[in-house]
Amino acid sequence: MNEISVIISRLSESFLLNCRLFALTLVFSLPLGLLISFGTMSRFRPLRWLLRTIVWMVRGTPLMLQLMIIFYGPGLLNMSFTWPSGATGRFVAATVAFVINYACYFSEIFRGGIESVPKGQYEAGQVLGMTKVQIFFKVTLLQVVKRILPPVGNEVITLVKDTSLSRIIANKEIIMMAGEYSSKGLIWPLFGTGIYFLVFVGALTLLLDWLEKKMGYFRV
Amino acid sequence: MAILEVKNIEKNFGTLKVLQKIDFSLEKGESIAIIGSSGSGKTTLLRCLNFLERPDKGSIIVNNEVIFDADDPATQLESEVRKKRLHFGLVFQDFNLFPQYTVLKNVTLAAELLAKERPNYKQDKKAILQEIQARGEELLSQVGLSDKLECYPHQISGGQKQRVAIARALALEPDILCFDEPTSALDPELTGEVLKVIKNLAERNTTMIIVTHEMDFARDVADRVIFMDDGVIIEQGSPQEVFGAPKEERTKQFLARYKKD
Fold it and tell me: Are the CB atoms for B93 and B212 separated by under 8 Å?
């Protein structure tokens, strides 16, 4: 009995790493994704092609591989840069990889959302004497947010589960923790991890539904 | 005194000559109807006046001020375009209302944003916003939508949307109000209410340029009619002259085709 509660508390503790990675990835990848999306729509061709190439490479290779390249790459290439030692370094490297990866996916969603706003909306703002910045914030932004909410929600839910991939560079996240038990012959903790993800995603789903309802007062 | 003079405007899209030698002027309080078949350049002309397109040649003069001259880069500064646009208002064919704002907010939004640039905005914020709000309500009652102030665009009909769009354009008190086929996107039974509003404006001597396919309406409302074909003004004159006794062969053909439809 005592052992069960110890296991549960260790699983919960390791799930905190998944949660931290999740939160940090969102906080940084959403704004970075917006910047990248502006770049991929830029009229300056070299910038546009550079960013589109990066997005292609990031979306075209497994996140697991990216984690390894970012964590081991600097050492293997004898770069002067190295990650901090120990758990911190592994976590920071994982965060960097996740932010880059998700920013690229988000940037494509943002680009689609921004490009789907009818030209007439910009023109209506222009002939009413609005500045470009005013048009973006007062006219198009909310329409874009409404349009992209479902695909962004999808990505966010995927991110919850993807955080487990960080174990490939030895981050002690929940599945890695459970794996230590299963390798000793105790299998239920591994299945138990599913409950953590289900509860987390369930809460997120409620939040996303609420947001969608919040924006149901207008149609685009 | 002409409020608007358009001199020798030319516009090309690549090798396609969309507008050539466009010359006309508009008196204060006058309304002009521009007619012609699709692709004749009517819409492009309105878009040039509203700085949505840049003419390749010619000049636009409002109240004796050269607001655009293709040969004078000083008149084309991007930073001043925004101010110059405000001489004109534009009502679009497909309304382009802002879906996330109420009818009233659609009308007041631009005025509220512009008010922020007034020097006394900080002190008198409340009074200024109240005044804009009152003006918006007044305009909406003028177009018969007092009972729709808090509706969102998806909750009202196409005819009502276009009337909101007209009130929105009037809110900034443009010198010249332009209409780009204001009833073309509407079901036939909804065009009447929009045309009535425009007619009303004409009776109040609003200076207007109306691109339209509604010939009876043009004859009824306009002080002057311009017929365009292939990017050129073929004929202009009073409605009686253009509709009653067209001089040019192409005008006759166009009007005959319309009567058949």
Answer: no
